[in-house]
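To fix ideas, we close by showing one paired sequence and structure record:
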Amino acid sequence: MIAKSKEEAVKRITKLREVIDHYRYLYHVKDQVEISDSALDSLKHELYTLEQQFPELITADSPTQRVGGAPLAKFEKVKHRHRMLSMEDVFSREEFSDWMERIEKVGGKKAEDFYLMTKIDGLAISLIYKDGVLITAATRGDGRIGENVTQNVKTIESIPLRLRKLEPAELTKYSHINLKGTFEVRGEIHMGKREFKKMNAKRKKLGETLFANPRNISAGSIRQLDPKIAASRPLDFRAWHLDVIGQKTHEESMEILQLLGFKTAPGKVLRELNEIEDYMNQMITDRDQIPYWIDGLVVRVNSHQYFSDLGVVGKTPRGIVAWKFPPEEAVTRVLEVNWFVGRTGKLTPVAIVEPVFLAGTTVQNATLHNPDEIARLGIKINDTVIITKAGDIIPKIITVLTEMRQGDEEKIIIPVNCPVCGTETERKPNVVDIFCQNPVCFSKERAQILYAARAFEIDGLGGKTVERFINEGFLTSPADLFRLDPNEIAQIEGFGKVSARKLVEEIATKKEIGLAEFIQSLGIPNVGEETSYTLANKFSSIEALQLADLQDLIAIQDVGEVVARSIVDYFVSDYAMHLLEEYKVVGVKILKPEKTAQKLANLTFVVTGSLESISRDEAKELIRKAGGAVSGSVSKKTDYVVVGASAGSKLKKAEELNIKTLSETEFLSML
């Protein structure tokens, strides 16, 4: 309609917005449909027409303003009102029971009850409302600073631009809660299973690349600078946190969120461990029936006061935990087995399987580790297998369904020659792996150069680039990185004079390297980051390490006979002697470890969990600079375990071995 006057338009626009918001609330929150999509579209169109007639009447919370705005040049940073903290993960009844006991010990009493809700597998978002209107939406970021994604978030229909006004009876029931002024709502942006399937079917029809999983689409859509991209995708939102004054329980918060116009995840209040476990098992059984992806249960102390009293450890509130589902399993078929050559020449078998959707991603390959694992599984090509994702991350074959065999299965051939260079492979006594013996095997060269580049912290060198440089004859060893010629690089397709010059200049700034990092760059078998630092603390130079004999090395804590023999064998090899000489020729300078007060000399530490003021890597560096050693696992040789949030199994092992644990504050006071 066309309004005859501005006054008439104001009345009609106000009514249209109220009605449209009401139907949005019924559809998204109450799951009730009282008007057809076409009728609702007609109301929205009328509202749009009136707003175009009187643009000065357009407000930020109007239903017409969900899509709009020019693409941004970048996202602005937003400081969160309160830190967006993470949750501790538990994976079993035992771990969950331990959590219940810990909060009882810290709080001095049992929690009266717990609020349980499904853990949605999506993107956490913070929404700020002022006087009922959405003013800011921000991503989690580092917990303190996020990115302002308001334009994109406003395109999601299930996020109210203006909060629903409570009815008089509702206001009376919740009169103790202050819903005025500015407050925050947090929740999860996600995509439903059916919507994800439909979107990928459409993309397949158009010949476009399929999306891997709905979590990635949710995060990727919200981080697009053009809001029209987010608007084109069927994103959804469910709230799980309300930050206002006066609420008594989390159950009450969830009730209010629904009344304000938000969808929420299904919730339940329970008291005892057994009934919580029963509900967890029910969710495991029912998870496929839920219309969106979930990966566990969130269990929270229901009382807001007790939750607050329990406080925070690191970046994790003590009063909440995520009880994660066991790894998902799926059945698929092995199509072939490929062997990949790493920097040490080790050949790793990888099974290529029929694509299968597993734990939110499409899996197409799984590691078989080594020939012994192939023999243990008794696996063959064309076998039907059960595949899982260990920790919901790494695809792994756990069982071969031999009863599914039809006679066309083929034995997996263990290569006697390197699949890359053709050199004969070798399997040493008491070693499960096989190796390519060719010191100049292309795949070994590529992997060694990439490994060294990472240790030297050289940016801009990916696998494809290194491969091209090897093919062009620019690189034959890691030392050749410092011989690259920008004029030669500029001749390669995809490179120009500017990019070639910048790459060579970047590499030139990396000629100075610490002793520990240099040892790591050599790629000595069985010598990783921690051992490299241990060796750097023990020896003052690379020359001193070269001269060390087997017994000298075995005597070092955390360096056993296998590692010691690897080091000795490496430094007597022609490859190592030539590489070290080449590094001298190109001007690489190895910096001696800084001599500082050795307050932690002869002490071994393990750092676990998330720390508050520093990262784990920074904590390890502080330990090393103070003369201490860092280990990746807890053993009887460990002196201290530094414990942050979500410490997990290492904390449990320390308690079992009666090893002293340190909080972050206690650790820092030792330095």
About this structure: The first strand starts at residue 77 and ends at 79. The mean pLDDT is 87. The CA atoms of residues 28 and 101 lie 39 Å apart. The chain has six domains: 6-65, 88-324, 329-434, 442-510, 514-591, 604-669.
